[in-house]
Amino acid sequence: MSNELDKCLMDLYSRNCPKNFEYLNIIRQLNISLDKFKIVHVGGTNGKGSVSYKIANCLKSCGCNVGLFTSPHIWTPCERISINNQIISNENFIRYYKIVSNVDNSRQLRIFEVFMIMAFMYFIDNDVEWVVLEVGIGGRLDSTNFITSSKLVVITSIGLDHMNILGENLSDIAYEKAGIIKPNTTVVIGPSCVKYAVFKDKCKENHCKLIPVTINALEFDTENTEIAKIALTQGLGLDSKIVNQRLTIKPPLRYYHLSDYEKQIIGLSTYDEVIIDVAHNLPGMYYLAKQFSAQKYRNLLKICIYFNSEGRSLDVLAPLALDFYDIYLASVDHPRISNNTRLLRKLNEMHETQLKIKLMKSLSKTNGYFIHNTPNYKEIINYALGEIKKTSGVLLLCGSFFAMFDICSTFQILPSVFGISNQLPSVKY
């Protein structure tokens, strides 16, 4: 079965798709109707995946049949499509991929659109009542925004990310995020969204009820939890007692601490700390730095290893510059991750700041691992682990989602820890 899944994924990732293909034609050919779904549409710069996850799990706890479509994935594309917290099986993934692939012109679809169409087909066939639909990028022009109505819209946060697509300033980005607001729905917006008039204006224009969330949280998960709670209780009218019981759940690798058992496998003591987080943009790094600073690590050696998404500036690391003694850059074998050559080029192009000085100092210790473009993450992780073992320190690994598969493999973190099958495809992209 895994060989057949690998074939599907190799076919999927070999696509070279036009940017403006009309994917709605494929949806019409497949007779996909959304009429029976109650849709919760979730957007935002950061937190939309976590909030989607929390909302879906709470709806399930209330006895609803809930489909969740989210992105990206860590171990397997099957993670993107789930019903009642159970990801789609390899068999069903293959089945729906073949159905979509047999439609005329389907090779023009972008990868994200293929997954989305597969998800809706799967939800229809399994009589899903509620669909929690996470936006890919932005909102107004996102592929998920073909829906014509929604029961609830949640916009978690506004921050600088994907500026080449969404605009160079926060007001432009807020405008794009507000594009998912549909007529006569309820709209919940996170704390960083409240100051942008576009949300109030868009709600007034569409006769929507606007519910702002105004919590000032130290930890990102606390803010996401409050947004989900308000969305479920005030937005959907669910029982707060049931909601509160399920809100602690969060997706994989959100400030994840290695367990004592996982540390023992790699020869660390229980006093050493290894933390893994998917923070990868500037707003995410600010939250990560704030949470990290609040921990009792003041007198410990603190080291960070960062995996950079291709096209992203290394300046996103600025919030971490003060807290960490060393910040190492590392690469994995993935087309969406900066390789060694690009990392060094980005570093040389940086302005002379304290961050650049720290990165250059750290690089001087690991530059032997930057030969050619061979992925160097294993060597740099081993080097950093050796350093923290000397003094019982803290190692933080963060950055792109697309590096997390390799990070987890290095630390032998199994998907089953997060309720995901260990039967993985060999095609990791």
Automatic annotation (TrEMBL):
One of its GO terms (molecular function) is dihydrofolate synthase activity. Keywords: ATP-binding, Ligase, Magnesium, Metal-binding, Nucleotide-binding. Gene3D superfamilies: Mur ligase, C-terminal domain (3.90.190.20), Mur-like, catalytic domain (3.40.1190.10). InterPro entries: Folylpolyglutamate_synth, Mur-like_cat_sf, Mur_ligase_C_dom_sf, Mur_ligase_cen. Residues 42-219 form the Mur ligase central domain. SUPFAM superfamilies: MurD-like peptide ligases, catalytic domain, MurD-like peptide ligases, peptide-binding domain. Its EC number is 6.3.2.17. One of its GO terms (cellular component) is cytosol. Belongs to the folylpolyglutamate synthase family. This is Folylpolyglutamate synthase. It comes from Babesia microti (strain RI).
